[in-house]
């Protein structure tokens, strides 16, 4: 079909569905860790990158099984079944009601959810990792030796299908996650967000099986990796035995294996090791690249995500990557590279990868600049030994509040609030409130590192006050805004906002903070008793803020309310992440697409899956680097960590450029053909010698 083997279309469709499954699950994984399992950012980042590292370590196992035992087709088939089971187990493990016997909205035995989730992720890592080196190499096997151009186009189409699946899943699964589901209580629907990818993995498996009779299946050629390892080990041992000067040097250290292994295997091993040596600096690129799904996702939760999109729960910058990939791969392949070639510029694969690494470094410089702006908007929270107090005057007359013993005096206007004031916890003992002709002393028992709010009100009965523990010392982890209500009426009322019920509030009592489900929406706020009802429409709360809303009075069924801003909403817009995603996408096109093709083109025919596994192993090592940095780093500022990664990648980029300048490109097929020719000539010579001996014997 159009010069391509028909079988590759089944492989491309299979890859699209499998990548939808993987990236769809991965798109919500960090949020699943922080919001459902309630892990902190650093631990969630470490587990996320441990999972990704495992996904890229298992390709070695997949390559050994494919090249030595089952062959690529059966390996893909068997491990895809494991993969689909893992997705299903993860989906079941994310069901909130699984152990919620008391129906309070939280799992009674969260260890069960964690255990199922980890089992599911391990099976997914085994499945997706095991088939990774096989699928692309299996697609390459479908072409004849004279179809080099079609094979190159296939790798571009293959990568295009990866990112088409990634794009759709990044749009769909966050939206599925944001829908509410549950038997007893309605919460973010992770079972659906993980369940749809599980279904897509089952579809991928079915599509792959349908094309079974059309595939060109190359038989496994023995335990190649074991043979290579033995060959390398023997060469090192033999060289050590003959280290004295009396033994002449050989052209290559692997030639010391020639006493035991044939020239073809030694030559193939040389090809593989030359490429693997080039792979040494590459993990640093993946250490940067894969932080899209962890650090950059967490960075986005501290930004203003108001985009007015149909997919309102999608972080827009995240979908920039797959959108740009889908656009840029064909454009670069059919327009940019031919144009560079016409300009007679020798833009070799390794030079493309070098430029990609440089752009990856610049992407993290951009991320650091964005983080600096975000940090400027963060509120100041109490440090160790400190406490913060905010005053709200709900009365109609001004008041003066004295912090005892003689620490500070603050005037508070009617129906106004102060900001949070910082005090040393050990020194602050009480508050003295003076309003009109009345005064009151409020004794304090405060905890270090916490925030408190003191609403007070002067009326005919005196000064009423109630110290409230705020229980927030950080920006909302969900990225949404928080809201709570204070009853400034003289009688109890039931307060609701949209579908949220804040319960019955007594006079001057305060509700707990609750997440605003959709921060860019307005909500109907109501305060009611058994005899009356008042309502009003709220403002839009934005992202990352916290508000106290006072219920002041009701006139003609219209509720009068007052907003007090406890924490400013996020002001740095999420669109500022787009430049860093754009730079990283350009880096990916130049680095990853080229690397896949380079790995295949430089590999001997019987070691293509092994070299693909080596390429994927660099991704695993890159994620291990992130785990180490997240675990041992003493850097407190996130922007500084971004700068560290940018600097490391830039240094590695320079090292790789120097290494690449010494690399000589080869054609493995040509070298193997030469060996085949020599072997055939030797066989013919042996046959001629045997015939001559037989003729001589017959004469005798």
Percent helix range: 40-55%
> How many β-strands, per DSSP?
20
CATH class of the largest domain reads Mainly Alpha
Number of domains: 4
Please state the structural category.
alpha+beta
Taking Cα atoms only, what radius of gyration do you get, to the nearest Å? Answer: 33 Å
Q: How would you characterize the largest beta sheet?
A: 6 strands, mixed
Strand content: 15-25%
Q: Could you tell me the CATH topology label of the largest domain.
A: Growth Hormone, Chain: A
CATH architectural name of the largest domain: Up-down Bundle
List the uncertain runs. 308-312
What is the molecular shape?
elongated
- Individual helix count: 17
Within CATH, the superfamily of the largest domain carries the name MFS general substrate transporter like domains
- Whole-number mean pLDDT: 84
Between the first and last Cα atoms, what is the distance in angstroms?
63 Å
Structure description:
The protein is an alpha+beta fold and 700 residues long. The protein folds into four domains: 1-222, MFS general substrate transporter like domains (Growth Hormone, Chain: A, Up-down Bundle), CATH 1.20.1250; 280-377 and 572-672, MFS general substrate transporter like domains (Growth Hormone, Chain: A, Up-down Bundle), CATH 1.20.1250.20; 380-473, Immunoglobulin-like, CATH 2.60.40; 475-569, Immunoglobulin-like. It is 53% helix and 15% strand. The chain contains 17 helices and 20 strands. Strands 3, 6, 7, 10, 11 and 12 form a six-stranded mixed beta sheet that branches. Helix 2 runs antiparallel to helix 3 (41-57) and helix 10 crosses helix 15. The radius of gyration is 33 Å and the shape is elongated.
